[in-house]
Amino acid sequence: MKSATLALVAAAVVLSAGCSHPQRSRDLANPAVSATTMAQQVCSNCHGMTGSSVSPNFPNLAGQQEAYFVAQLEGFRSHRRSDPAGFEYMWGLSRSLTDDQIKGLATYYANQAPEAQPIEGDRGRFEAGKAIFSGGVADKGVPACKTCHGAEGKGDATFPRLAGQHADYVMKQLLVFQRTDERPEGGVMKSVAHELTAQDIRNVAAYLQALPRL
Ligand code: HEC
Ligand code: HEC
Fold first, then answer.
1. pLDDT tops 60 at residue 10
2. Rounded to the nearest whole angstrom, what is the distance from the C-alpha of residue 1 to the centroid of ligand 2?
3. What separation in Å is there between the alpha carbon of 73 and the centre of ligand 1?
4. Is the CB of 29 under 6 A from ligand 2?
5. Which of 160, 174, 161 lies closest to 203, judged by CA?
6. Which ligand places an atom closest to the C-alpha of 82?
7. Does the CB atom of residue 204 touch ligand 1 within 6 A?
8. Quick check: CB of 181 below 6 Å from ligand 2?
9. What is the number of alpha carbons within 13 Å of residue 132 lying toward its C-beta?
10. Is omega for the bond preceding 118 within 30 degrees of 0, making it cis?
11. Pick from 134, 130, 111, 132: which is nearest to 122 by CA?
């Protein structure tokens, strides 16, 4: 690395040590800031230092599939993914990220070990959720989630990891797919989610949050 670049990175690290917004946005617009620095000093404010967030408002990113992750950040950056929380939080944050930074961020999070999430719900709920995940809802034509998201819910390439995701976030996204066109690659999930009832959504989301602990 050239010393001028090093100096820029060092300056960015010093600047972002504080918490005020102008300092953060300066970081975000600086292509010289490494993905790891950005993840630990900017993204961590909401998504947690290693991609496991405390608040269910912020999706867990630890262990997320790289191809899926890149597609989502590109979707926010181009404003194609426009669900309300994405628009509110992620449009501004992704605006100045370079393709290299996005790739680096995807690799950073894919390599973090997901933290186990709290188990919330009773046995009946988990069994109903597991039945949907593993077998779908046959009489309504809902396919098994595991056929695309993997037997353990870890995802694959553009199929996202769902295991250990916050139930609140999963429920919110299932409603986005079911009711809107706010996610550009949501076509498949729109037909999957179409016939799910509110109860089905609660059950499968509780099961997914608890994976792999069930
Ligand atoms: C101020 C809080 C905040 C910060 C900081 C933040 N995010 Fe987010 N992020 C969110 C919220 C809220 C969502 C959920 C958006 C939705 O529901 O569409 C989200 C969603 C995402 C998603 C989509 C996850 C999925 O499963 O589809 C990715 C990827 C992501 N953020 C990456 C990042 C990266 C990388 C950074 C740092 C450059 C970052 N975020 C910084 C709040 C934040
Ligand atoms: C035919 C393949 C397929 C099946 C079956 C499927 N999914 Fe998906 N799912 C996808 C794809 C592809 C995406 C990514 C969509 C995007 O990029 O916006 C996705 C995204 C999701 C997301 C958003 C994750 C995030 O981090 O934002 C949730 C939640 C989800 N699926 C839940 C389910 C559930 C629950 C089932 C079973 C009822 C299911 N999926 C069945 C293909 C599938």
1. no
2. 40
3. 8
4. no
5. 174
6. 1
7. no
8. no
9. 22
10. no
11. 130
